Every structure is written in C-alpha cells, then in structure tokens.
C-alpha cells in the first residue's frame, strides 16, 4: 500500500498490561484495587479520550461499579499515570489535562445504558468539571447544562517553567466557544490550587458556528459560520502570551445549512459508527510548514455508483472537485470517506473502493497525484474503522485505541513503479517516492535502475527528463520553501489524458481575507503564497531560454572569430569549474565512465551560463535569503543535474559490464554497447529540449559508441540531425586510432567535412594524408586571396625556379609567394608557418596525379 501506518501507541499493549498488573497504590489512587478483574469484565470501556499537544494520551475506563477512571500515557517516558476517579456511573464526553498535569477538565453525560439512574441534576444533560489533581483536591463545576460540552486546555509553546495561569476552551453544542482564564498558585509545597475558583474570567471566542476543528500542534481553532447562507471559514491563532487573533476569513462554496453541528479533533468520539459516518458530510482543514492551506470536503453520499469530494487549495487559489466511480451499481457504501494529512500530500480513501494521494504542493496537473481504484488487497490493508487525522502526520483510530504515524510507503511505491503500466501512475509514483526524502541517494539509485531499463516505456512524457527535473527539485527544495515557485517541479506543463476511474472539475476560488498585517512563521509563508497567486502572472518557474540564446551567440562568435570580453567568458568558465568541483566533492566512488575528464568548452560554457542565469533568477525573487546561500543552492542544483546523468550512465555501464577497450575507435560494437548508446541518445534528446548541460566527455563517449554501433550512412544522419555532436577530442582520437584503409578514409573524410572550419583545419594538420594536404592547401589559398588586389606582373617568369613547366600553376604559385612575402609576419603569428606556396604546389601536383590515375 502507498500509505504506511506506524503505530506509536496501542491501548492493548501500552496501557492494558499496566492496568492488569497488581499495584499497591491502586486502592489509594482510587483505582479500585481489583484492576485485573475490572479490566477482564470491562475491557470495552477502555478507550482514548484525547491526544494533547505534547503527545500525551488521555484514556478512560470503567470499574465494576461504573466509576470512571482517567489515566495518562506519557509518550516520552512511555509510562502510565492515574489521574483521577469520578465515582459516578456517567459517560465521558470530553477530557483534557493541562501541560503541568495539575488540572483536569472533563465533560460528563448521563449513561445511555438502560436501567441506569440519573446521576446528574434534573434538567442537566452534561456536567463539565474542573479538578485539581496535584494532589487530588477541589472539584469545580464549570457547566451543568442541557447540551453537550467539549473541553480543551491550551498549551503554550514554552514549557520550561510552570504557568501561573492556564487557559481552557469550552465548546458548546449550542454553537459558542468560550475561553476560561484559570489562575493557579502553590500551597504547602507542591500543592496546586485554583485562585478565586468562584470567579473565573472568560472570553467569548466564537458563536453561531456550525463546524469547528482544533489543531493541537499549532494551537489553532478553525470554525465555519454562516453569513446569508454562505459558509465562511475563520481561523483563530492562540499565542503563548495568552493572546489570540482572528487570522483570516475565507468564503467556501459548500452547503452546511442543513448539516447540523460537527466538531473535528476535540478529543476522540468513538461513538460515531461507520454507518452514521457514511451518511454525513466530512470536512477538515490541513496545513503544513510550507504555508499550504487545504480544506477537504465530502458531502453526504447520495449515490451508490459514485462519490464526490472536493479539495480547496486555498494557498493556490483554486479548488478541485473529484468524482470517483465506486464499481458495480450494487456496491453499498457502508463506510465514510477519510482524509489524512501526509505533509506534502493529502490521502483520500474509501475502504474497499479507492485510494487517492493528492499532491498539495503542485496540484495543477492530475498526473502528479496517485489514484488507485478497485476492491483489492492493497486498498483493504488500511483500517476500516474511522480514522482521525491529527496535527502533522498523526492518525488516531478511536475504535482500536491506536495512534499511528502516517508515512508514504517507499518500498511499495518503488514496487509500483516497476509494475504499473499507466503513464499517469508512473509519473505520480515517481514524485511520491522522491518526496519521501529519506535516504535520497539510495532511493535515487533504485529509481535510476528503473529509469535505465525503461527509458522508452513512457509515451506521454520523457522519463529521463521527468526524473532529472523532479529529483533536482527535491534535492534543494527543503532548504528554502519558496523555491517551489521558482524552480521547475516537472518537465510536463500540460496533461490532457484521462485518469481511469476518476474525473475532476477545477474552479478558481476567492482568496481569504487576512485580518492581520504582520506575519511570522507559517502565516508569513501562507501570505507569501497568497500574494504569489494574486500578483504573479505569468509564473516565475525558471527555464533555460535565456541560456539557450546566449549560448548560441557565444558559439556563433567563436565560429566567426569574434570574441566577447575575456573577463565575461572567464567568469562563465569559472562558474563551470565550481560546478564540477562541487560535483566531484560529493562523489566518493571512482567513475567507470570517462566523464568530466576533458575540456569540452561548449558544455562548460553552457554549464556556467546556467549557473549565472539561475543565480540571477533566484536573487531577484528570493527575498531575505543570503546571497552566499543562494549561490551554493545554485551550484548544488546544477551539480545535481549533471550527477544524475553521470549515475544513469554508470548504472547502464555497470549493468552491461563494459570495459575501457570500448573507449577506442577500433572494433565493432555488440549488444551491450548498442544498449548504452541507445540510453545515451535518449539522455541527449531529453537534455536538448530542456537545454540542460551534459557532463564534459559525454559527447566524445557518445561519438565513439556511435562509430562502433552504426553503419556509416546512419552515423552521418545522426551527426547531421544533431543526435551526435562531434567534439575535437573525439575527432582527434578517431584520426589517431583508425588507419587509412579505404573504409576508414571514407569515414574520416565524412567527419572532417562536417567540422567547423577552425577545428577542421586543426584536425587536417594531424592527419598525414594527401587529401588532408589538399584541404589544408585550399584553406590556405582561400585565406591568402581573400583580400588580394590584382597588381601588374612581369610577363617573363623565371622557369628555372619551378620544378614543373606548367605555366598556370607556375604563375599562381608566384602570386602566392609574393603575397606570403609581403604578409610574412602576420601569417607566422597565425600559425601558418608550416604551410606555404611550396606546400600548396606539392599538394596540387599530388592531387592532379591522383585524379589522372598516375
């Protein structure tokens, strides 16, 4: 299963053995003394009541006489503690304990069992108590009303010293929320008592709401009230200095007018059955540290054929409404839909029907979210009982009394990558795996193995492109959250293919109205996201279009002999050197492939230009981040791109067990070399369309394998179409490695004819062959005669100075000699000292002899 639930707490394992164990202090503590008998007869009464911000878990059970016992499990020490016993047969609605464990608040209702006498005052439905428990002392009645009450202590962010004042939220079924201020003092040593218990001050926090959710980790209260039948989501942030603020108001296009009253995460309500849940709406709010804000909503299920749920990506300014097919028409939905917070993802599942991992950082394309449908074993591995998604990735199963930590299952997702056939599932699974982030290099190695064996398996997108872009993104994203708006997340910009089993409708939504003007922490990031949606058109994701234009300009200038400022080019090449040094520093193992070992100035220029442009892009848009940190981030990002390419090649090289003998032009390629050549060609295609740099040495190795594997006409076609790029290193090695057989001469001529003039001349000087001399001579004559102006010449030519009596040649050679003598210093400086008129004469005669067959 793509989701893995790791149990952090289990009532049966962490509490029950402690309760069954004989304890001398049990009677004194009010536990009844017969713990084992109590639990044997009343095991079903043991259940979780609440999970506090510090992770401590409050639970309750009943004794034989119906007395209510409250206990606490400390998640840090993994020890249990008895808190209080209430000697009446009542049902616990809600319970909370303060951070110092000196006060306990509990809300109790009349037991629903038949034959039980009424333990409450006439006319009272619910009794809300505040108890001093350090030591057990006074009990104060906060409410005795004809409606249910829920209680929740606020927890400060700093717990280093005892607080003189505690704060308690009371949430009433009559649709109001109050905050009580409880001052405490110490008496007789460590005894904690409530000051002025008869006059506790309180504030009215909210009223006339229909839904509320508590975020215990971040100490936030979300609630919805109805204004003119419109649902308005509001959020109150509680601070350690006792203050609280209304942070925002956000209109939601959902109908709650006839939904009744619902609370989320105010303790554990195990009385909600699955049948009841399936007939009521589900609504919850999820956030994460990057400033995301999602509202997940599923209306009442009215159809047996499909189910609808919506996610409001408030931080992105749009919502998506999904409709999932439920299979056969006779399928009966007996369970409610569940939403779980998984940090970068939200999981939506309906046991026995479907599982949907929604990407909340990049929700624009449906292919970045993983949808699995069907009544299969993998989907049924999740608990079928109701789950509460608490803060962070904590999940509470109220029925079993287990607290889980929900994680993406890396091993399953990798298995899924290898076995799924659909492109959309490959895309989604790839991003899910990379977002896990744990042991990223090992994880990447496993993905690279899959990529290298499936380079042509995807038809909707380029697998190599997607892996390189996505993995590079995740390698730097955790360092600065705003990078997600500036770096590309995917190589795919649009997706028009349907996802089997699900349809969706995307709509723009109104952005929330922020009610404060200064922001810190999460609120600063959320506000930044909202400002980006509001004012940034088009989006700011980096691309290499500027690099492409500038690189082509530099290469064109090089071909024509023009030069930019030496300092400008030197700075670009220095950036490339930093990237390679950064890359080599991270690689601790020797490379099998001969990459990063040659100059390859063109790739170094491309590398340096990308560093320069990306650095400028991030400096423009990343406010408040140090320049040094941005520069290192850029080096890491470009290094990562190159490293991934090197590792793909290393993997395929190792798989086919290629040796260093492959690096010579002699010989023919086998199946192994052709497989590596194919992967390198796909890498070149992938990087070329995105205009990404390649490791120096890549083109040389690609050319060597191309000569080994391709017939001459195919090889030349690859060169002419840009799928093989000739480097100076590769051509020099070809000239030296291959002898001058007829077949090799044809190859060499074809290669030289496709080289840029400057490199072609250099290569010709290294090849001792009549045709090479002919080419050199032609180039030399062309340069000499470019600026030639005809001068009057003597009609008499001294024939004794020529070896052959052929007047046209003699006349031509004398002209060249005269030009050379007048420009001797210039041509010597340009390296033409070994090529002169005599060399041209000899080459011309040899070429004529060849043409005449002499």
Automatic annotation (TrEMBL):
The organism's superkingdom is given as Eukaryota
Q: Which GO terms describe its biological process?
A: positive regulation of amyloid-beta formation
Domain spans labelled Gamma-secretase-activating protein C-terminal: 642-749
Alphabetical GO CC annotations of the entry are: trans-Golgi network
Q: What is this protein called?
A: Gamma-secretase activating protein
Q: Which InterPro entries match?
A: GSAP_C_dom (IPR028010), GSAP_fam (IPR026172)
The organism of origin for this protein: Microcebus murinus (Gray mouse lemur)
């Amino acid at each position: 299963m793509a989701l893995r639930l790791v149990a952090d707490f289990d009532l049966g394992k962490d509490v029950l053995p402690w309760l069954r164990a004989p304890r001398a202090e049990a009677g004194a503590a009010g536990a009844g003394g017969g713990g084992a008998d109590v639990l044997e007869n009343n095991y079903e009464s043991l259940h979780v009541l609440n999970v506090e911000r510090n992770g401590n878990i409050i639970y309750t059970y009943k004794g034989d006489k119906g007395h209510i016992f409250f206990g606490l499990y400390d998640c840090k020490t993994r020890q249990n503690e008895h808190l209080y016993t209430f000697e009446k047969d009542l049902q616990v609605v809600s319970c909370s304990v303060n951070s110092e464990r000196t006060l306990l608040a509990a809300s109790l209702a009349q037991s629903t069992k038949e034959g039980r006498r009424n333990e409450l005052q006439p006319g009272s439905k619910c009794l809300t108590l505040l108890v001093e428990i350090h030591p057990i002392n006074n009990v104060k009645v906060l409410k005795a009303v004809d409606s249910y009450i829920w209680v929740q202590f606020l927890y400060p962010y700093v717990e280093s010293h005892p607080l003189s004042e505690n704060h308690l939220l009371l949430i009433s079924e009559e649709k109001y929320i109050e905050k009580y201020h409880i001052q405490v003092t110490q008496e007789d040593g460590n005894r904690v008592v409530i000051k002025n218990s008869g006059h506790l001050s309180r504030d009215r926090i909210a009223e006339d709401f229909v839904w509320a959710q508590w975020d215990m980790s971040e100490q936030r209260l979300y609630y919805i009230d109805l204004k003119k039948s419109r649902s308005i989501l509001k959020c109150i942030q509680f601070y350690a200095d006792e203050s609280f603020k209304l942070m925002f108001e956000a209109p939601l296009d959902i109908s709650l007018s006839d939904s009744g009253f619902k609370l989320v995460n105010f303790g554990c309500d195990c009385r909600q059955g699955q049948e009841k849940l399936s007939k009521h709406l589900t609504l919850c709010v999820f956030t994460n540290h990057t400033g995301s804000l999602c509202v997940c909503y599923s209306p009442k299920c009215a159809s047996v054929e499909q189910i609808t749920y919506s996610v409001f990506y408030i931080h992105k300014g749009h919502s998506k409404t999904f409709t999932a097919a439920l299979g056969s028409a006779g399928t009966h939905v007996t369970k409610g839909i569940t939403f779980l917070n998984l940090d970068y993802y939200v999981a939506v599942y309906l046991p026995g029907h479907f599982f949907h991992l929604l990407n909340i950082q990049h929700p624009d394309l449906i292919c970045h979210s993983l949808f699995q449908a069907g009544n299969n074993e993998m989907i049924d591995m999740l608990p079928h009982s109701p789950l509460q998604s608490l803060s962070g990735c904590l999940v509470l199963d109220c029925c079993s009394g287990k607290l889980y930590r929900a994680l993406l299952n890396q091993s399953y997702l990798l298995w899924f990558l290898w076995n799924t056939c659909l492109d959309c599932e490959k895309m989604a699974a790839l991003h899910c795996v990379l977002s896990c982030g744990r042991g990223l290099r090992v994880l990447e190695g496993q993905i690279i193995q899959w990529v290298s064996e499936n380079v042509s398996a995807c038809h909707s997108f380029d697998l190599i492109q997607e892996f390189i872009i996505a993995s590079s993104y995740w390698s730097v994203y955790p360092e600065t959250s705003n990078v997600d708006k500036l770096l590309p997340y995917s190589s795919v910009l649009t997706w028009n293919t349907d996802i089997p089993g699900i349809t969706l409708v995307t709509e723009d939504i109104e952005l929330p109205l922020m009610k404060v003007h200064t922001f810190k922490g999460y609120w600063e990031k959320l506000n930044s996201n909202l400002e980006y949606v509001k004012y940034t058109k088009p989006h700011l994701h980096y691309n290499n279009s500027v690099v492409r234009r500038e690189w082509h300009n530099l290469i064109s200038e090089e071909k024509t002999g023009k030069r930019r400022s030496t300092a400008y080019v030197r700075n670009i090449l220095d950036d490339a050197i930093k990237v390679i040094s950064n890359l080599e520093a991270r690689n601790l193992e020797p490379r099998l492939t001969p990459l990063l070992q040659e100059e390859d100035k063109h790739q170094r220029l491309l590398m340096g230009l990308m560093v320069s442009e990306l650095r400028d892009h991030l400096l423009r848009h990343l406010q408040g981040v140090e320049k040094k940190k941005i520069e290192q981030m850029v080096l890491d990002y470009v290094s990562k791109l190159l490293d991934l390419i090197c590792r793909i090649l290393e993997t395929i090289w190792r798989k086919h067990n290629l040796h260093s003998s492959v690096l010579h032009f002699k010989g023919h390629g086998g199946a192994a070399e052709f497989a590596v050549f194919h992967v390198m060609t796909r890498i070149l295609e992938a990087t070329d369309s995105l205009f990404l740099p390649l490791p120096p040495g890549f083109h040389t190795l690609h050319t060597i394998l191309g000569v080994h594997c391709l017939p001459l006409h195919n090889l030349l076609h690859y060169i002419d179409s840009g799928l093989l790029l000739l480097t100076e290193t590769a051509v020099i090695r070809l000239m030296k490695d291959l002898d001058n057989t007829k077949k090799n001469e044809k190859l060499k001529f074809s290669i030289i004819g496709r080289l840029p003039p400057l490199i072609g001349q250099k290569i010709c000087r290294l090849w001792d062959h009549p045709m090479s001399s002919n080419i050199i001579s032609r180039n030399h004559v062309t340069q000499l005669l470019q600026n030639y102006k005809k001068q009057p010449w003597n009609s008499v030519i001294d024939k004794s100075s020529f070896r052959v009596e052929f007047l046209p040649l003699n006349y031509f050679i004398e002209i060249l000699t005269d030009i050379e003598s007048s420009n001797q210093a210039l041509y010597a400086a340009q390296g033409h000292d070994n090529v002169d008129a005599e060399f041209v004469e000899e080459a011309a005669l040899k070429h004529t002899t060849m043409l005449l067959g002499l």
